[in-house]
Amino acid sequence: MNPNMNPIDVQALGKVAVLLGGRSAEREVSLMSGAGVLAALKAKGVDAHAFDPAERDLSELRRDGFSRVFIALHGRFGEDGTVQGALELLGIPYTGPGVMASSVAMDKLMTKRIWIAEGLATPAWRQVRSAAETRAAFAALGAPMIVKPVREGSTIGLTKVTTLEQCDAAYALAAGLDPMVMCEQFIAGDEVTCPVLGTGDAARALPVIRIVAPDGNYDYQNKYFTDDTKYLVPCGLPEGEEAAIQALVLQAFRTLDCRGWARADVMIDATTRKPWLLEINTSPGMTGHSLVPMSARATGVSYEDLCLQVLATAALDNPASLKA
Q1: Needs which cofactor (predicted)?
Q2: How far apart, in whole angstroms, are the C-alpha atoms of residue 314 and residue 175?
Q3: CA–CA–CA angle 18, 249, 260 (5° rounding)
Q4: Residue 112: C-alpha distances to residues 121, 252, 278, 314 (Å)
Q5: ∠200-242-122 over CA atoms, to 5°?
Q6: Backbone angles phi and psi of 188, in degrees to 5
Q7: What backbone torsions phi and psi does residue 233 show, to the nearest 5 degrees?
Q8: What number of other Cβ atoms are within 10 A of residue 141's Cβ?
Q9: pLDDT surpasses 50 at 88
Q10: Which is nearest to 173 in space by CA: 163, 186, 183?
Q11: What is the mean pLDDT of residues 224-239?
Q12: SS3 letters across the chain
């Protein structure tokens, strides 16, 4: 357990719902995350129960006496502020960032606009509404270029475009998942990720993980269903680089007013060694391949203790609603 945290009174946590599954394109991963979290919380003595919003109405959370919620949903209807808003109305504290922070972080365009306004480095991009605009973005941003849906996660619908001829299919794939599509400058170099735990001044960045995927292709399959990707923690970066990335990620977390936990993805330019923020995940994966548990483990925090720590941060944007 993190020695800086006060002991957690498990009984005071009350009856806990682990939201898992849901209706997003990431349902399969969410079921795996939720199963892991549920088992971990039960092992710590928490009165925890699985709750799939695709199969049950959220109003049943209040009816059945749940006192807090661990959100293990990923993607839409779970990570985008919608479930968070429902829980605010129900007055049930939940893990992870609040309504606005979750909504903004799910929207990669809005995230970039805010980060740029705050002076944080993120790759150049174009919003596109057609295959023709995608080809124009390719001419402007150069090759390779990333094409992806604005409001999906886990690299779903993402294409790395290297030729003009690939633009039409890349746009069609992304647009099939989200009417909002973006093209992004590709940064060649080290791919890393860094989790943040805590809220406000107590938030801290965990160790950076360097990701080495087969042929540099860290796609959905290599994220969750193969053992071919290597995750290096300690990351092997120069000490100054890791500290700079941790500081950048912590600033990105606070700029979006996140709380509880999140994980930011970063690319390090191979030539300049400059770190570039890609996106931030406000309901990180908790599967056997997931990165937040891996990073926490490097600091001596077990998977079970990590789940308990995150659960203990459950909160509401408007705590006064508890009195309603």
Answers
A1: Mn(2+); Mg(2+)
A2: 34
A3: 25
A4: 9, 10, 8, 27
A5: 70
A6: -85, 130
A7: -145, 110
A8: 19
A9: yes
A10: 183
A11: 82
A12: CCCCCCCCCCHHHCEEEEECCCCCCCHHHHHHHHHHHHHHHHHCCCEEEEECCCCCCCCHHHHCCCCEEEECCCCCCCCCCHHHHHHHHHCCCECCCCHHHHHHHHCHHHHHHHHHHCCCCCCCEEEECCHHHHHHHHHHHCCCEEEEECCCCCCCCCEEECCHHHHHHHHHHHHCCCCCEEEEECCCEEEEEEEEECCHHHCEECCCEEEECHHHCCCHHHHHCCCCCEEECCCCCCHHHHHHHHHHHHHHHHHCCCCCEEEEEEEEECCCCCEEEEEEECCCCCCCCCHHHHHHHCCCCCHHHHHHHHHHCCECCCHHHHHC
Instruction: List the domain boundaries for the chain.
Output: 11-96+316-323, 105-122+187-305, 125-185
- At 54, list the tokens: 């695709």
> Is the distance from CB of 21 to CB of 55 less than 8 angstroms?
yes
Tokens of 188: 């060649």
CATH 3.40.50.20 fits 11-96+316-323, yes or no: yes
Tell the CATH topology of 125-185: Dna Ligase; domain 1 (3.30.1490)
Q: What digits encode the pLDDT tens for the residues 303-316?
A: 999 999 999 999 99
Catalytic positions are 26, 154, 224, 263, 265, 279, 281, 285
Lookup: tokens for 256: 């979006």
Q: What is the CATH number of domain 105-122+187-305?
A: 3.30.470.20
Distance CA 146, CA 126 (A): 10
Integer Cα distance of 240 and 156 in angstroms: 33
Render pLDDT for 269-287 as a digit per residue (tens, 0 to 9).
999 999 999 999 999 999 9
Reading the block at residue 80, the tokens are 């985008």
